[in-house]
Amino acid sequence: MTTQYGNQPTGQQHHGAPQRGASSNVLSIIAIVLGVIGFIILPIVFALAGLVMAIIAKTVRHERLSTVAIVVSAIGLVGGMVLGAVLAGM
Fold this sequence. Notes:
- This protein is mainly alpha-helical.
- 58% of the residues lie in helices and 7% in strands.
């Protein structure tokens, strides 16, 4: 398709198409940090928040590090709860 200014393409793009491997990994990095913090203190708060953010980063923003963030947050959640139970039983 051409414009009224000559044979220049209009540059129509599909803006609704998801980007593959977004350049920004902000949510994933925050989720990784929350997962690590959740392993040490309050896993039901920090690691769960990290897990939610990682899932949002995976499904909505298509970030590259989101899979790593999901794994780290899940390990932080389960591992922090186990660690808390072991330390509470001492």
